[in-house]
Amino acid sequence: MPATVYVLNGPNLNLLGLREPHIYGHDTLDDIAGLLEDRARELDLEIDMRQSNHEGHLIDWLHEAQAYEAKAVLLNAGGFTHTSIAIHDAIKSVKTPVIEVHLSNPHAREPFRHESFIGRAAKGTIAGFGAQSYLLALEAAARF
């Protein structure tokens, strides 16, 4: 059975393709899921992709990823990236490696986006490549 990689998406990512496409691109979350599923098959991995606008769901899913021995978690925490000590603590509390993912480059944007509580706890960060950021993160996760 292929190893599972959780792909967790935070607030407002359900609006990808509609919300500020000049920043986030025209790909929807379903488009990204399709790209990931295709590449995951080639890497003998399975994707479990989820999205929530609620912080507690992301925390519960991080715990679940460890309980089900996921290979890795790709996490785009959206706006929680810059505010959530609770998600930071959840990442630190699990052994499953977490890769922070961003479509845009937060360091090229507003100053409040330059701080990432998620990045401080994650194994690594991939940002600024649009939907390709997810694929690059999957490639990294496949090597764990």
Description:
It is built from 6 helices and 5 strands. The two termini are 17 Å apart. Helix content is 39%, strand content 19%. It is α/β, with parallel strands linked by helices.
What value does the Rg take, in angstroms? 14 Å
Give the count of helical stretches: 6
- Going across the major beta sheet, what is the strand order? 2-1-3-4-5
Average pLDDT across residues? 94
Please provide the ordered H/E string of secondary-structure elements.
Answer: EHHEHEHEHEH
Brief sketch in words of this structure:
This protein has 144 residues and is an alpha/beta fold.
Strands, helices and their partners?
Layout: E1 3-9, H1 21-24, H2 29-42, E2 45-51, H3 55-67, E3 72-76, H4 85-93, E4 98-102, H5 117-121, E5 124-127, H6 132-142
Helix pairs in contact: 3-4
Features:
144 residues, alpha/beta
